[in-house]
Design goal:
Strand content: 5-15%
Number of helices: 18
Radius of gyration: 29 Å
Number of domains: 2
Helix content: 40-55%
Largest sheet: 7 strands, mixed
Distance between the termini: 61 Å
Order of helices and strands: EEEHHHEHEHHHHHHHEHHEEHEHEHHEHE
């Protein structure tokens, strides 16, 4: 008998080749579905479970893909142990495991078995995958390695075999039904041989006698998980008292000065078009008392940046000196000139990865901006930048948290933009992981750690900002408006 199964998860692993015992590497399973079929394609049983999140959240980006929110999983889900016990029962009836790109699902479920201390002998069972060179040749999709055809996705394989689109991708029950249909149709088309299927001559022949026409879907009803998640949100909203909150009066901020603290320059090669001198000039034009630059990994623009700022300030001093020689100059005019001076703040945006010395796989890390408070801070930035290139370079210059702690004195660190560590954890690993990371930075940088709020109208930014502002209030962390300017 064939067990065809699929999972939905909290995301993707950091390393696809990591052992299933590396529980920090493998994402959590939030849904599992399966169909058990007899050798001739007859459906014997099917099941589907959502799993209650225990000690983790379902991240925003994962929810966007499969529609399963943390709230839905907690409301409709079953405990992991009960789900795995049901899966163990169906495994006992199985001879062959079947799936689309099944290695990922085997690792996901295998890591959950290991988490509960269950035996993983079932992983030694024979496996048949619908995503192979044979199905690639059947679909003839360009773009594979070495000029070969690329391996088809489940949707592409379904379209090729049945000439109709597969509409409900990323719901495990729908994925399993589509995979089962594709699998048995591939048998009909000769993509799996008798030896692959572990059938004797009689059963192999019997399959073709019983399946003379295109294989049909099992007819299982699929729940729209995204709609259910949204319904829970709407229900929660309807239960909240709709009192009108008066708009906060911000008129007192009208004349408060603003400084851009997250800017790239021409030295962020292929990323930014901003000339150092222009950055200073624009900041002065907009009446900013200070402006910072934080290029990607390098400090090559530091001298030009500080020099441009000092030259500008020197020109202001000369104007003040000339004005003071005149008898009719008011104190207000002198003060207005003083306000045109600017403080150039030196910074660097580092790629912070788990281990700068680990070059066994590509991990560019997160983009985290640092600003120097003084000369000592500037020297520490130089050290970190040099180490990033000399020790950590792998595709990009990288540093890690261990080396950051050695050179953290007199540095300010911010959460950065969407590619910062906290933002990426919110989007891809959940709020709990993001909060743990946030507390690490707060503990080690104290009042020199700031939350950065960036708004460009992106849906992801709105989600990140909502969580960041909540964290800021909860943990008394200061925050500021930013833009991560490149142009």
């Amino acid at each position: 008998m064939y067990l065809i199964f699929d999972t939905e998860t909290t995301g993707l692993p950091k390393k696809f080749n990591a052992p299933i015992t590396d529980l920090d590497n493998w994402p959590r399973c939030v849904q599992i579905a399966w169909q058990l079929h007899d050798y001739d394609g007859t459906l014997i049983e099917h099941n589907d479970f959502l799993i209650v999140p225990d000690g983790y959240d379902i991240p925003y980006q994962s929810e966007k893909i499969h529609g399963i929110s943390t709230a839905l999983a907690k409301t409709k889900g079953e405990p992991l142990k009960e789900v795995l016990n049901s899966f163990k029962n169906v495994l006992a009836k199985t001879k062959v495991l079947v799936g689309q790109n099944l290695k990922f699902d085997l690792n996901i479920v295998g890591s959950e078995f290991h988490r509960l201390g269950y035996d993983n002998e079932w992983l030694k069972m024979p496996v048949l995958d619908t995503c192979t060179e044979k199905s690639a040749f059947l679909c003839k999709l360009p773009g594979g390695r070495g000029g070969k055809f690329k391996y088809p996705t489940l949707s592409e394989l379904h379209q090729c075999l049945f000439k109709v689109p597969f509409k409900e991708a990323h719901n495990a029950t729908a994925d399993v039904e589509a995979t089962a249909r594709c699998f048995f149709e591939l048998i009909r088309k000769g993509s799996f041989q008798k030896s692959d299927l572990f059938l004797d001559d009689e059963k192999y022949a019997d399959f073709f006698v019983k399946n003379t026409s295109e294989f049909t879907p099992a007819g299982i009803k699929h729940i729209n998980l995204s709609k259910q998640s949204k319904a829970l949100v709407e229900k929660k909203k309807s239960g909240v008292s709709k009192t009108v909150v008066p708009k906060e009066d911000i008129s007192h901020l009208k004349d408060v000065p603003f400084s851009h603290l997250h800017n790239k320059t021409q030295f962020s090669v292929l990323q930014s078009t901003i000339h150092v001198k222009t950055l200073i000039e624009k900041a002065v034009e907009f009446g900013m008392p200070a402006v910072a630059f934080s290029d990607s990994g390098n400090m090559m623009g530091a001298f030009q940046f500080v020099e441009a700022g000092f030259k500008h300030n020197q020109s202001i001093d000369e104007k003040i000196e000339e004005a003071n020689k005149k008898s009719n100059v008011s104190e207000t005019e002198i003060q207005d000139l003083e306000k045109k001076k600017i403080l150039p703040i030196v910074g660097c945006e580092f790629q912070v990865c788990p281990d700068r010395n680990d070059k066994t796989y590509k991990n560019n890390g997160y983009q985290v901006p640092f600003l120097a408070k003084n000369k000592k801070g500037y020297q520490n930035l130089i050290k970190l930048s040099s180490i990033g290139f000399i020790e950590g370079f792998y595709y990009v210059p990288r540093i890690d948290k261990n080396i950051i702690l050695e050179y953290s004195n007199d540095l300010i660190v911010t959460t950065g933009g969407l590619y910062g560590e906290i933002a990426q954890l919110i989007l891809n690993e959940g709020e709990q992981k993001a909060e743990e990371s946030l507390l690490w930075w707060k503990e080690n940088f104290k009042d020199d750690f700031y939350i950065e709020i960036v708004r460009h109208g992106l849906e992801e930014e709105e989600k990140v900002n909502e969580v960041l502002l909540r964290f800021a209030k909860k943990h008394s962390i200061k925050y500021f408006a930013s833009n991560n300017t490149h142009y």
